[in-house]
Amino acid sequence: MAKEVKSISNPDWPTGVRLPVVLTFEHQSGEGAALLPGDRPNYMVTGAMEYGARVGIWNILELLDRCGVKATFFACGATAEKYPESIQAAQKAGHEIAGMSYSFERVRTASPERERSIVVKTAKALEDVCGAKIRGWRCPDYRVSPQTLDILSECGFAWDSSLLNDDMPCLFECAGGKLIELPFTTSTADRTYIAYPYPMRGGFDGMANAWNSEFDVLYRESERTPRFMMLSIQTWASGRPTPLRTLRTFIERLSAYNDIQFARCDDIAGWSEKAGRN
After folding, report:
1. Coil, helix or strand at residue 171
2. What is the pLDDT of residues 255-265, one digit of tens each?
3. Are 31 and 79 in contact (CB under 8 A)?
4. CATH of the domain at 233
5. Residue 178 is assigned to a structural domain of this protein
6. Nearest of 52, 82, 67 to residue 190 by alpha carbon
7. End-to-end alpha-carbon separation of the chain, Å?
8. Residues 97-143: pLDDT tens digits?
9. Distance from C-alpha of 199 to C-alpha of 83, rounded to nearest angstrom
10. Is the alpha carbon torsion for 47, 108, 207, 219 positive or negative?
């Protein structure tokens, strides 16, 4: 079983970078919509999530391009097959493509064989669509199984971002070798404030307040000790006009700092892995 070696408290951030900020976008087209009683499709929720693949991701890609920001997109394999142009456009624009299941399967109670087949199938679907090696992973709803990290390492992944248990990256020794874990928090996830189920919990103003407050605290702490900030954003939620404006305002605020760098998960993992060798 995967064993944590250490929390990486001294990552090798680039010179002049006080606080890296990682925007992660979770991209699906309704695979994660819960069924109604009797296994009936919930077309309202499915349709809202499908918006992310049909429209939302394009709005987000346009915003990121305008702001000169690179990000990480966690995508379902089925979404990539149904909407390949969106994955290809994100990869071509310099964003990182990572895996997030094939069809939003929950793996917490899956057998090792079942979970491994999902990881392999997802990576192949994404790689076939965008032509890039998939190095990172996030479990749907952040629900890992006891064997998740071992399976990822055996399948050649370099990092995972599913855990919520630390402020800093962690190094794990797994069945297939070392793996970097990039923890984050759901307290700044957009769906905490603007996604289903209704009513919204805080809405757009609540989300903006959480993002700005999190940044203020981390920026202040980073004067004394390394920190990084990661946001979890749904293309189907923040890809709509009003939350997109909230995201744009936040990016513009941070862009005014000359010691902030927007980074991808693979960047954070690489800088952390280098420090982890010491």
Report:
1. strand
2. 999 999 999 99
3. yes
4. 3.20.20.370
5. yes
6. 52
7. 24
8. 999 999 999 898 889 999 999 999 999 999 999 999 999 999 998 99
9. 30
10. negative
Q: Which of 226, 250, 98 shows the shortest CA–CA distance to 167? A: 226
Q: For residue range 190-225, list pLDDT tens digits in order.
A: 999 997 655 567 888 999 999 999 999 999 999 999
Task: Give yes or no for a contact between 268 and 184, defined as CB atoms under 8 angstroms apart.
Answer: no
DSSP 131: -
Q: What is the pTM of this model?
A: 0.95
CA atoms within 13 A on the CB side of 49: 23
Q: What is the pLDDT of residue 198?
A: 57
Q: Which residue(s) pair with 4 in the sheet?
A: 172
- Find the mean pLDDT for residues 80-94: 97
Is residue 179 predicted with pLDDT exceeding 90? Answer: yes
- Residues near 247 by beta carbon (within 8 Å), at least 6 away in sequence: 60, 63, 233, 238
- Read off the tokens for 92: 């071509």
**Which residue in this structure is represented by tokens 């760098």?**
261
| Beta bridge partners of residue 173, listed in sequence order | 3, 178
Give a yes or no: residue 160 inside a domain. yes
Q: How many domains does the chain have?
A: 1
Both structure tokens of 96: 């990182």
Cβ atoms 183, 158 nearer than 8 A: no
Listed in sequence order, the residues at least 6 apart from 27 whose beta carbon sits closer than 8 Å to its beta carbon are 52, 53, 57, 73, 74, 75, 76, 79, 86, 87, 100, 235
Residue 135 placed within a domain: yes
Q: Residue 7 belongs to what domain range?
A: 3-30+66-276
